[in-house]
Amino acid sequence: MPLEDRLAALEAEIAAADPALTVKPVGLAALQREISSALMADQAFIAPASTLLCVLFALFLFRSWRTAILCAVPSVLGLSWTVGAMALLGIPFDPFMAIIPTLIIVLGIADSVHVFYAVMRHRDRCDIGRALVLGLNETIPAVILAALTTALAFVCLSLVGSPTLSNVALVGPIGMAMTTLAVYLALPPAALLLLGDRAEGRPDPLRFRGLAGLAIRVLPANRIITFIAFASLALLLAAQTQTVIGFRLMEHVPKGGEFRETLERLKASLPGSDQAFVVLEAADPRPGLSPEDRALLARAGRALYGTGDGFVPPRDMRESDAAALRRFEAADGGAFALPVVGSLDRSWQEILGAAEAVSEDLKDAGLENAQVVGYSLMASVELPRVVQELRVAFYVAVGLVALLAALLTRSVRIAALSMVPNLLPILGVEAWLFLTDRPLTIIGGIAFTVAFGIAVDDTIHLLNRLRLARPRGAPVDRAAIETALRAASAPILTTSLILLAGFATTAFSLLPSVSVFGQLTAVAMLLAAIADLFLFPSLLCWGAIGARTR
Fold it and tell me: E-assigned strands of 53-190?
């Protein structure tokens, strides 16, 4: 019977008995229903709010409303095409999938920003059509490679044995492909329509020349900066071994809903609403309560509840009254499942500790074969393993991206150096979790893997500018690095600010897991932009001068 029908029947029975009583569902079925409602409310608000906030930031940074709208067009199209692909493939929209729309919006705008800056470099020397051709040709390698690295990060999530994450691992690359396609199909005609030869077609975006100059001025200290970078990387890798991996169910309970309010009331007045079960093999396998079964249940009742008298029904109990107790008996009479309650907002350590305490009490009562089972207990055991697998997926993504960078630049040195500014932000945020005594949960594991794939984007665009700053096949030199830094600093900072604006909307999500994902990813993005501008060029000056790349 569906949950709504069961609730209606129960409410009718209770109303007939006592109109003052009310029914508040707090089981997993009720939680799933509230999560579904929260997902629909989130998508009705967060995706449009993220787009609007990104456009407003673009308006401020470009000082042109036409340019702001232009940069949003590919994102809206890419998201629409991705949702259509999900519908065609029959992929459901679940809590983990809630991160996809915001990612597509902000990454689509980021790609458009890089293309726009490239077009504007040529706009003063030629008409808008020619500038578009030159700008698109310059950015095609970087935009496609950036989408590929992000898609690889998503694909690595499929290494985790979870059907839900497998869906994310499939939809993520689809979204990246659709967004990249939208950038090159929709942005040129939109630019011709919105910009053309109007005065507004020559916007004067913020150039961030002061920050670019500061980044160039630190290059002479490249040896010191390189030492600090590698020392920090070694320290953070060592600190990662101390990170606590855990699980917290309340991370997935919608904020401000009736379910959470009911849980708080239960916590204040009752032991809780999180239910586990102690499974006992019946002393007498035949259906019904034999004397041996009664003795077994009495021992278990004393171990679990302090007394066995209140649980074992008296022999003269009426059949109608005993029916409620049959729900704890297996259909074939071969086992019993006795409830053990606790609070849903317990940490995974508390859940495991409570289960261990119950097991010890049962052993003391001579019930060594009793088993403690339940959803929260299962999640507390299995989900930390999933997080460990996500960590493996993260390093697989690092290896694949490094290999891809080496193949495309034809320089192992540059590929290895490029990993440093992208690993430091991710490991730094994980170290912050450790220092603030917060566990690394499944949401954090997903965020770090995806954030790494996104963080590489700025590095790729800087390397692309380094490629354009010198003749093909010529060795890397200091002048080329400075030229690349001047050209890439404005779009990197602009896209980073827009990414922060887009992810800021996740703070208003009804699902705590989405908020946590947005916060971790946004912080990692900001740190990655700083590392790419003030650390990566020094690494190149130290270790890549003289290297020949494509």
Answer: none
What's the Rg (C-alpha) of the chain?
A: 29
Residue 82, pLDDT score:
93
Class of CATH domain 28-242+380-543: mainly alpha
Whether the pLDDT of residue 77 is over 90: the answer is yes
**What residues contact 307, with CB distance under 8 A and at least 6 apart?**
301
The CA distance from 35 to 523, in Å, is 26
> Among all chains, which residue has been given the structure tokens 């600093």?
489
- Over 70: is that where the pLDDT of 538 sits? yes
Query: pLDDT of 214-254, one tens digit each?
Result: 888 999 999 999 999 999 999 998 888 888 887 777 777 88
300, 280 in Cβ contact below 8 A?
yes
For the cut 90, the answer to whether the pLDDT of residue 32 exceeds it is: no
> Is the pLDDT reported for residue 81 higher than 90?
yes
Residue-wise DSSP of 264-283: HHHHHHSS-SEEEEEEEE-S
Beta 371-373 vs 335-342: how paired, if at all?
A: unpaired
pLDDT of res. 199: 47
SS3 167: helix
Residue-range domain boundaries for the chain: 28-242+380-543, 262-373
Six token digits for residue 132: 């578009």
Full DSSP string of 150-180: HHHHHHHGGGSS-HHHHHHHHHHHHHHHHHH
Three-state secondary structure call for residue 188:
helix
CB 492 within 8 A of CB 461: yes
What is the SS3 assignment for 256? coil
pLDDT at 550: 58
Confidence of residue 80 (pLDDT cuts 50, 70, 90): very high
Residue identified by tokens 């490991």 is 427
Query: How far is residue 501 from each of residues 73, 107, 201, 293, 453, measured CA to CA in Å?
Result: 17, 12, 25, 63, 19
Q: What is the pLDDT of the chain when averaged over all its residues?
A: 82
> Residue 444: how many CA atoms within 13 Å on its side-chain side?
25
Rounded CA gap, 504 and 56, in Å?
13
Q: 């704890």: which residue's tokens?
A: 328
Q: Report whether 7 contacts 25 (CB < 8 A).
A: yes
CB distance 403 to 542 below 8 Å: no
Question: Which structure tokens are listed for 275?
Answer: 């239910």
Over residues 45-66, the mean pLDDT reads 82
Structure tokens that stand for 219 in this block: 């290059």
